[in-house]
Amino acid sequence: MIFIVGGAGYIGSHVNKFLSKKGYKTLILDNLSKGHEEFVKWGEFIKGDLKDKRLLDKIFKEYNITTVMHFAALTDVRESIKDPGSYYRNNVKNTLNLLDAMQKNNINRFIFSSTCAVYGDPIETPITEDHPCNPISPYGRSKLMIEKILEDYSNAYDFNYVSLRYFNAAGADPQTEIGEWHEPETHLIPIILDVAIGKRENVQIFGTDYPTPNGTCIRDYIHVMDLADAHYKALKLLEEDKSEIFNLGNGDGFSVKEIIETCREVTGEEIPTIESDRRPGDPPILIGSSKKAKRILRWEPEFSDIKDIIETAWEWHQKLNNEII
Ligand code: UFG
């Protein structure tokens, strides 16, 4: 059985679907602070928190868990700058509870949701895994701290891990059973789609004076189902008792203005914008090299076209806003 912590959230729920379709049994733990119970359509669900060490021990004793996947974290860069304590408690301290409960119960395979935010403002792109890690936000630092802890645990104990550094997760389940649903929403694509659907008046463009061709930030968008596939492939790698770190991106960068333009094409809506100040903690360009994942995991993104990614997001966004899920 695969234990998916944070499996009611955006990425965790897509991984749960993917693994369930592959025939894995899954157990989801989520405190529902950000996740949605409606997203746990596969596997078993326990509502609970990583703060609860007794619950973790009980789960590991009761269920035949072979691997833990850990998605439960706070992920808002701007919020992490204002309230670092919450980020270190939620993302670092709670993960230690999870690792220690695994240790106690001899469970030794771990897949960690890391982020391109560990690189900070990169000195060159595309970013490879050996690029220096100098995060510029408490969020990025909290993720890097866990990566270091994982490295130490794998050196000291019978423990293997795969850390997956996601670039910008985007898109939704092509069958529109689940998708992106954050409250409040802070991510670019769903915010643009909110404007397209008439829920917001305009999109704020955070910074138009970055050192990029049109002055807006460039990101590497990767489809959430391609991320799910990488987790499935990482499971296979752990079966060989190996520990690795991988970037997961498309290797292509799109500026904020280009994303807005593609959303206009996909939705057929005008989508008004206003230019605003830079948002703190945003590096100008993040583009990843995923050569290592392609070589070792034999992973190949299926949704490499940004239009296809946005189309799946748009399908889901319309469903989310027109129906009660
Ligand atoms: N942006 C806008 N207007 C908005 C929202 C976002 O201009 O209303 C811009 C941001 O400034 C950024 C780009 O759009 O330049 C993408 O922003 P997102 O919030 O969608 O994504 P981020 O790149 O900030 O964040 C993502 C993940 C984080 C991760 C980070 C790495 O959500 O978990 O990448 O920097 F840490």
From TrEMBL:
Keyword Secreted: no
Domain spans labelled NAD-dependent epimerase/dehydratase: 2-249
Any Pfam family: Epimerase
Membrane-crossing residue ranges in chain numbering: none
Molecular function (Gene Ontology), one example: UDP-glucose 4-epimerase activity
Class of this enzyme: isomerase
Cofactor(s) the protein requires to work: NAD(+)
InterPro entries registered for this protein in UniProt: Epimerase_deHydtase (IPR001509), NAD(P)-bd_dom_sf (IPR036291), UDP_G4E (IPR005886)
Keywords: Carbohydrate metabolism, Isomerase, NAD
EC number: 5.1.3.2
A Gene Ontology biological process term: galactose catabolic process via UDP-galactose, Leloir pathway
Family classification: Belongs to the NAD(P)-dependent epimerase/dehydratase family.
Name of this chain's protein: UDP-glucose 4-epimerase GalE
Gene from which this protein is expressed: galE
